[in-house]
């Protein structure tokens, strides 16, 4: 105090230091009053571990905790899951070994079986059936429907010809009065 | 009260069984008083189930934790509206809710159905009573909501945090109402088959019911998507989860029915198909319940699994065998009254539309069951997730969207080349302009491009229909445009309500396609640190971590992590995501900490913030941030869809006689006179 700093200045400095610490990003990292209520402790996200490439790989891999989500979605959604962070670390380790995305997926299939993938590979008779059957059924039904309609169309035209009826009513010329009458009739039908 | 509830359940069971026996024995045909008794028994069952429901509600509200269900799903500090909704939060309560609402619908069907269909009503009562008896029997013998514990806990376990959301107060009842009301059209279909009155009478009797079912299912599914989006925190609204699929299946077949039934009404065709669709829709609703409750397929909706699923499997098999056998025995009497005349007709378009609806339903069912089939055949477990469903179903969905645009443009019976040219020019132009504009804007992904082009095409179709309708009214009645527009809808609610529904579907498709462009990023931030993301619309968002605060609220301890958002350099407010540790009234933790997402919704995109956790118990927070395009439009599409459904089913409005009149002339009748042409291919 003898150096010229008054009590008021000293207190002001203290307030300024406290205030500076309390500004976001400028002071010591605050601790949570109760860290147990925010779920599992998290590790900081490292550079590159959430790149588009890693996301693309992890969204094709299924988490094996039974959640039906992919690894990326599960580890960034279900924060009680212990499986997806582990699988994430495996993906990172494989990538660091220099494996391509496809090789990472293959390594997962080799280790965990085909269920590691979010969708089965379109290979083998059973899997191909899985992919193609719905489309094939619809295509077959569509072709069948087309053939049925075509056949019936022929039958209808044949019946009409046998009855001596023209299959279509020809366009008619009408007077303004007739036109007005038709308008009235139409307005009752569909108005 | 539990004793009263138990008694009410047994009484409902016995009365319902009695109604079933009397109804199907056919004894009432000779004795009118018996027919009246069958109908009255429906009301009696409803009264019993209301008593049972009130008894359980009383247990919930008074915190009678000696009742196992009350202890399992509530706690003393649970907010009262969640105590109320806890009735359908667990399996036992939801079974009771289901049975009660079904008996309410069964009673309404008896009360509101015209006397013209009196010959069907005892059988309708029999079928609905059989279904009610089944649900009550599941409760009595497998999953009793009034089961008591050997001791009384001081507090209950509380409600699953994911169910403590306003969406879960509304979403399950809506979905249940959809599932449950399907029973009424099914009952009429069975009654028509039993009585051999197989004309279109039963179709007209159930028209409102099918629309009610479809409307509730639509609202329920949309609310389910909303709940998943705001509560589950994975950043999307549809994950092709088996339970989600189970709700979609009956919606698809019901929608197919709503289209094909028009062909039966107009042309007397597709009688067998329509009966098959109604039976199939009912069975799929039971199948959905089986999937939800059996745990036979892994699902995120795991809180309702138990062995009662196999009750449903048994019921499903019995109902399928009996229904389809009955349909088979009536097959010859269900011959179409006329034949399809042309591939270029609205009937044909509706047929292909039905084919796609049922095909997509098959595809979804197939994908849902494929893991089981694969394991049974190959002995290998596989996962069938969104990539499989998207690969198989997206092309089918786009085909369906195409037919949504084509159907209304084609005339009944047979369209001429001139008719097609005149009808298709404007919609095709709209679709092409949309395509060119998007390619010009730099969009290259094929599926979204096709989806938006087709959405433009269908929008062109709908716009053209409204434009021509309004123009015709202006010519005939000299009305101003707004008056003509509203009267057009008012006078033909079924047709124009349907177009509004189609508009909702376009909005859905456009919004779904938008999610192909979502951006997501995980970031670890200390207070003051920030991360930047660029949205698909070109906006630059910066998220600066402000800090984490912890406080107690109601039945939970909240850790709220807040970021400051700037959009294109301008302040855009604060956004907070929470971790919630729910506790009982003794402050004991009840569940794992749950996450509350922070969402800022906009017309272009949603900012979606998830607080994943903290590093070493400090304020250093791990976030997942999503920029989800066009999500707001999903909810708006759902609103438009529901609004269109309400317009369609609103009583009155429209020429009743004309709408039921068979089509007489489906092709264009060109009248050359006074320089005008009037086309008569209206439906």
Q: Can you walk me through this structure?
A:
The complex is a heterodimer of chains A (191) and B (683). Chain A has 191 residues and is an all-alpha fold. Chain A contains seven helices and one strand, in the order H-H-H-H-H-H-E-H. The radius of gyration of chain A is 37 Å and the shape is elongated. The relative contact order of chain A is 0.05. About 9% of the residues of chain A have low confidence. Chain B has 683 residues and is an alpha+beta fold. Chain B folds into four domains: 159 residues, Four Helix Bundle (Hemerythrin (Met), subunit A); 180 residues, Four Helix Bundle (Hemerythrin (Met), subunit A) (Up-down Bundle), CATH 1.20.120; 176 residues, no CATH class; 115 residues, Tick-borne Encephalitis virus Glycoprotein, domain 1, CATH 2.60.98. Chain B is 60% helix and 11% strand. Chain B contains 20 helices and ten strands. In chain B, strands 2-3-4-5-6 form a five-stranded antiparallel β-sheet. A four-stranded antiparallel β-sheet of chain B has the order 1-9-8-7, with no helix packed on it. The radius of gyration of chain B is 27 Å and the shape is globular. The C terminus of chain B is likely disordered. Chains A and B meet through helix 6, strand 1 and helix 7 of A and helix 13, helix 14, strand 1, strand 3 and strand 8 of B.
Helix vs. strand class of chain B: alpha+beta
| Strands ordered across the widest β-sheet of chain B | 2-3-4-5-6
Radius of gyration of chain B: 27 Å
- Estimate the helix proportion of chain B, in percent: 55-70%
State the total count of DSSP E strands of chain A: 1
Largest sheet of chain B: 5 strands, antiparallel
Short description:
Helix content of chain A is 57%, strand content 1%.
């Amino acid at each position: 105090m003898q150096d010229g700093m008054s009590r008021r200045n000293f207190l002001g400095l203290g307030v300024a230091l406290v205030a500076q610490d309390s500004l976001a990003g400028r002071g010591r990292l605050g601790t949570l009053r109760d860290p147990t209520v925010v779920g599992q402790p998290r590790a900081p996200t490292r550079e590159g571990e959430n790149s588009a490439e890693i996301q693309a790989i992890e969204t094709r891999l299924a988490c094996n905790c039974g959640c039906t989500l992919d690894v990326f979605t599960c580890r960034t959604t279900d924060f009680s899951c212990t499986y997806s962070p582990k699988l994430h670390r495996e993906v990172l380790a494989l990538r660091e070994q220099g494996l391509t995305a496809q090789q990472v997926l293959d390594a997962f299939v080799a280790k965990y079986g085909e269920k590691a993938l979010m969708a089965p590979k379109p290979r083998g008779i059973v899997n191909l059936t899985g992919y193609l059957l719905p489309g094939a059924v619809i295509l077959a039904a569509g072709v069948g429907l087309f053939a049925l309609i075509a056949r019936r169309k022929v039958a209808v035209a044949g019946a009409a010809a046998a009855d001596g009826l023209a299959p279509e009513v020809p366009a008619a010329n009408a007077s303004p009065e007739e036109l007005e009458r038709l308008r009235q009739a139409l307005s009752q039908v569909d108005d | 009260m539990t004793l009263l509830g138990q008694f009410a359940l047994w009484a409902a069971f016995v009365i319902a069984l009695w109604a079933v026996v009397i109804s199907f024995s056919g004894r009432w045909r000779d004795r009118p008083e018996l027919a009246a008794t069958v109908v009255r028994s429906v009301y009696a069952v409803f009264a019993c189930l209301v008593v049972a429901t009130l008894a359980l509600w009383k247990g919930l509200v008074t915190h009678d934790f000696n009742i196992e269900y009350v202890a399992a799903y509530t706690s003393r500090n649970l907010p009262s509206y969640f105590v109320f909704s806890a009735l359908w939060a667990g399996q036992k309560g939801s079974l009771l809710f289901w049975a009660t609402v079904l008996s309410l619908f069964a009673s309404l069907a008896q009360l509101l159905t015209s006397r013209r269909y009196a010959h069907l009503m005892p059988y309708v009562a029999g079928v609905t009573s059989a279904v009610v008896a089944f649900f009550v029997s599941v409760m009595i013998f497998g999953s009793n909501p009034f089961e008591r514990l050997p001791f009384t806990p001081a507090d209950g376990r509380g409600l699953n945090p994911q169910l403590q959301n306003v969406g879960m107060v509304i979403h399950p009842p809506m979905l249940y109402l959809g599932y449950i009301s399907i029973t009424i059209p099914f009952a009429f279909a069975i009654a028509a088959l039993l009585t051999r009155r197989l004309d279109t009478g039963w179709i007209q009797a159930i028209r409102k019911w099918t629309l009610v079912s479809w409307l509730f299912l639509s609202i329920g599914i949309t609310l389910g998507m909303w709940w998943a989006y705001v509560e589950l925190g994975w950043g999307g609204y549809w994950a092709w989860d088996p339970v989600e699929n189970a709700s979609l299946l009956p919606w698809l077949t019901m929608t197919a029915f709503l289209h094909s039934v028009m062909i039966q009404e107009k042309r007397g065709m597709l009688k067998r198909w329509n009966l098959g669709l109604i039976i199939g829709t009912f069975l799929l609703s039971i199948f959905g319940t089986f999937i939800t409750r059996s745990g036979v397929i892994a699902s995120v909706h795991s809180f309702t699994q138990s062995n009662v699923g196999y009750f449903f499997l048994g019921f499903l098999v019995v109902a399928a065998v009996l229904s389809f056998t009955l349909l088979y025995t009536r097959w010859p009497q269900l011959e179409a009254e006329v034949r399809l005349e042309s591939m270029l007709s609205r009937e044909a378009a509706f047929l292909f539309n039905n084919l796609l609806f049922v095909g997509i339903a098959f595809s979804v069912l197939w994908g849902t069951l494929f893991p089981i089939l694969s394991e049974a055949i190959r002995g290998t477990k596989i996962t069938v997730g969104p990539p499989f469903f998207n690969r198989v179903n997206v092309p089918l969905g786009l085909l369906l969207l195409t037919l949504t645009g084509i159907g209304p443009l084609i005339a009944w019976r047979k369209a001429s080349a001139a008719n097609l040219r005149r009808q298709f020019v404007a919609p095709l132009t709209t679709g092409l302009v949309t395509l060119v504009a998007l390619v010009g804007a730099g969009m290259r992904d094929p599926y979204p491009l096709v989806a938006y082009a087709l959405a433009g095409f269908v929008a062109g179709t709908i716009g053209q229909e409204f434009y021509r309708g309004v123009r015709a009214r202006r010519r005939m009645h000299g009305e101003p445009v707004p008056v003509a527009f509203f009267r057009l809808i008012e006078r033909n609610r079924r047709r124009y309500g349907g177009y509004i529904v189609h508009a909702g579907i376009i909005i859905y498709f456009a919004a779904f396609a938008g999610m192909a462009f979502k951006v997501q990023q995980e970031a670890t931030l200390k207070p003051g640190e920030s991360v930047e993301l660029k949205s698909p619309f070109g906006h630059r968002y910066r998220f600066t971590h402000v800090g984490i605060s912890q406080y107690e609220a109601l039945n939970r301890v909240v850790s709220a992590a807040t970021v400051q958002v700037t959009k294109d350099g301008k302040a855009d407010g604060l956004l907070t995501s929470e971790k919630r540790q729910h506790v009982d009234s003794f402050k004991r933790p009840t569940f794992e900490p749950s996450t509350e997402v922070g969402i800022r919704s906009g017309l272009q995109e949603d900012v979606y913030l998830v607080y994943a956790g903290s590093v070493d118990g400090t304020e250093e927070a791990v976030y997942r941030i999503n920029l989800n395009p066009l999500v707001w439009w999903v909810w708006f599409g759902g609103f438009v869809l529901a609004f269109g459904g309400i317009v369609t089913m609103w009583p009155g409005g429209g020429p009743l006689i004309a709408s039921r009149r068979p089509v007489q002339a489906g092709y264009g009748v060109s009248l050359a006179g006074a320089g005008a042409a009037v086309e008569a291919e209206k439906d």
